Amino acid sequence: xxxxxxxxxxxxxxxxxxxxxxxxxxxxxxxxxxxxxxxxxxxxxxxxxxxxxxxxxxxxxxxxxxxxxxxxxxxxxxxxxxxxxxxxxxxxxxxxxxxxxxxxxxxxxxxxxxxxxxxxxxxxxxxxxxxxxxxxxxxxxxxxxxxxxxxxxxxxxxxxxxxxxxxxxxxxxxxxxxxxxxxxxxxxxxxxxxxxxxxxxxxxxxxxxxxxxxxxxxxxxxxxxxxxxxxxxxxxxxxxxxxxxxxxxxxxxxxxxxxxxxxxxxxxxxxxxxxxxxxxxxxxxxxxxxxxxxxxxxxxxxxxxxxxxxxxxxxxxxxxxxxxxxxxxxxxxxxxxxxxxxxxxxxxxxxxxxxxxxxxxxxx
Length: 364
What we know:
By secondary structure, the chain is an alpha/beta fold. The protein is 32% helix and 20% strand. The protein has a single domain, classed as Alpha-Beta Complex (Inosine-uridine Nucleoside N-ribohydrolase, Chain A), CATH 3.90.245.10. The strands form three sheets. The protein has a nine-stranded mixed β-sheet, sandwiched between helices. It has a two-stranded antiparallel sheet with strand order 6-7. Strands 9-10 form a two-stranded antiparallel sheet. Helix 1 (58-68) links the parallel strand 1 (31-36) and strand 2. The longest helix is centred in the C-terminal third of the chain and has 20 residues, at 248-267.
């Protein structure tokens, strides 16, 4: 997920719920890609904005859930967001190395907004007529090209910059995706937590990039909305136990998580520990029957201007609704059809998520 507070904040997944949808759960054929602004261990101040605090860590627990589920992770692309893309890359490398995961699948992605289209020209050979390609985008293309169509799920846990670049530069590869599952969206586009306005961070950091992704029709898009993703924490008591009496792996995750948990608790006084926003994406993939979702929801990205590095703007909104919305005059508008997940099938889902996240580290 992301983080960055002012009176706004963090990356949240939003979905408007009417009815219950279902998706196929994980199978042995599934291949996984992550696009993430992973920040576990970046404790001396997130450097992608003026609010100097420990980077958010919920992306890490989406990945540990994937490892616990024995999913075939073939690519992790780090982008700007919680931090810059290169520190995020090192954060992933260290966080997974501690757990014994040493596959060469981590690449650096975007360091800023999606580049504008260049003046048209005749590319040399197979060179795409775009500027946005980086090592991360090339890795996603390679994973898609070596796998058959319809087996690769892409988890979108950060800004959508690299995903939009993949669509723009390599549309044939992009179209082989089985689905994109993202933490983004809310019913009215203005998420609030404990009376504090928060930022739909994964949208706000590059609004047009998400707009391009939702308006394409070839690949299904599942939005885990703020209405659902705001629930679930890794408690301070668990974090403290890991730090004081856990295994080496648990100590690392506890020590790397505690600074952001403390930062979060200082703002949202009713919480206890680290919010698990992004972890909902993988938990949904493994247990779709536990979420209430609605198909054929209208996703609307209203882009009235680009945010500063703290994602603070009142001009950009991303909604997931049963019907269309009326945008303000002068805004650029992107629309698409998505599955929106905004609630839970029963009252035990949040606690089962929390237990699963805890177990995904305590098994080491």
